[in-house]
Write a sequence for this structure.
């Protein structure tokens, strides 16, 4: 549990003013202007390309996107095999992501200059909820790890690189053990694995504690071999040494698999303090409410730690909330000073959303932009 206060820094409000998609999913070319509004509501029938708009935005954060799709699958069918996403921000800067046919990687730019994906992440942090997260609390530990690790990466840009590196090192270790390679090489791998795993566990424990500072109705916990060592008061150095000793004693291959414990087995738990129950034992609506509270708390923590407000993407995330719950949600979202992009089929559902602009999608193209009260 985090004890103490989170420092408040001067505000930096990231807001997208213009978004341009080219050959992205079913969008040939479209341009969205937000008119400086804090809430952008993308409406349209199923298959119109609403989620694609949010997916394009998520790529601007340096992530692989809210769907985790292969870049070649995102490029519009019938196009030239590539795509681009370009946005201007309220500080007159511009960010973009491009993917070209024949290439294997996407490329980022900030103000026209080449930028790494980590630079995009630091420049334009984002957090999102999709229908996939509706089952977050009842699905596998792997899904929860991926979700929370993505949140941790929001203010610790090296965390995603560490988790990717850990996975690669485990794979290299498994191959080395299967091939019976020199133990000195495996010793070196174990040294790297122990150091990387300890850093991952420490970031998770710190994140859970600091997130709880901003939560009202819920509490987040993280469980795992290394995380528990740190929670119990062991130093990072002692935890790393203990895990290194464990790895040295666990070098058997069972049924062609390497069986070891570690941060790849850890899990996150969420407790509903109001109902005094683990969230997975509550109703679907109560789980959605807690999930949205997590996102709100994350936005506040991200601002406190990085001096930036994230852009929040809600893909059909408010569909099952009643009018009062939606109104309260957007009021709380407004308090975070984060620009929110949300999708829905019916504009009437968002009638009471303040400071909103409506974007209408039809047949994969943005056909018009409606401000509140316009038809």
């Amino acid at each position: 549990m985090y004890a103490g206060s989170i420092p408040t820094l001067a505000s930096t409000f990231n807001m997208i003013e213009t978004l341009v998609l080219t050959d992205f999913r079913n969008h040939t070319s479209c341009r969205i202007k937000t008119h400086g509004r804090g809430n952008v509501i993308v409406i349209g029938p199923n298959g119109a390309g609403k989620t694609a708009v949010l997916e394009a935005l998520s790529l601007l954060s340096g992530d692989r996107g809210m769907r985790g799709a292969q870049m070649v699958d995102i490029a519009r069918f019938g196009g030239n095999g590539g795509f681009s996403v370009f946005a201007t921000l309220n500080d007159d800067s511009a960010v973009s992501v491009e993917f070209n046919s024949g290439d294997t990687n996407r490329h980022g730019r900030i103000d026209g200059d080449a930028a790494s994906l980590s630079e995009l992440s630091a420049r334009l942090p984002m957090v999102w909820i999709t229908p996939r997260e509706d089952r977050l609390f009842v699905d596998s530990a792997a899904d929860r790890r991926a979700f929370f690790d993505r949140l941790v990466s929001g203010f610790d840009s090296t965390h995603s690189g560490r988790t990717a590196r850990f996975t690669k090192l485990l794979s290299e270790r498994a191959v080395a053990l299967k091939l019976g390679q020199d133990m000195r090489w495996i010793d070196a791998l174990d040294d790297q694995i122990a150091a990387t795993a300890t850093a991952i566990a420490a970031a998770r424990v710190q994140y859970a504690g600091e997130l709880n500072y901003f939560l009202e109705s819920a509490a987040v916990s993280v469980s795992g071999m290394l995380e528990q060592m740190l929670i119990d008061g062991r130093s990072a150095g002692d935890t790393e040494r203990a895990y290194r000793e464990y790895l040295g004693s666990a070098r058997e291959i069972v049924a062609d698999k390497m069986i070891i414990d570690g941060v790849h087995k850890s899990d996150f738990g969420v407790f509903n303090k109001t109902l005094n129950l683990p969230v997975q034992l509550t109703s679907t609506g109560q789980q959605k409410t807690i999930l949205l509270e997590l996102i709100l708390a994350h936005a506040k923590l991200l601002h406190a730690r990085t001096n930036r407000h994230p852009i929040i993407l809600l893909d059909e995330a408010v569909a099952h909330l009643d009018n009062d719950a939606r109104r309260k949600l957007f009021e709380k979202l407004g308090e975070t000073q984060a620009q929110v992009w949300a999708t829905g089929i019916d504009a009437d559902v968002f009638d009471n959303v303040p400071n909103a602009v409506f974007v209408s999608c039809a047949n994969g193209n943005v056909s018009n932009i409606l401000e509140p009260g316009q038809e």
Observations:
- Residues 183-214 form the longest helix (32 residues).
- The first strand starts at residue 16 and ends at 24.
- The radius of gyration is 22 Å.
- The domain at 14-125+311-375 is CATH 3.40.50.300 (Rossmann fold).
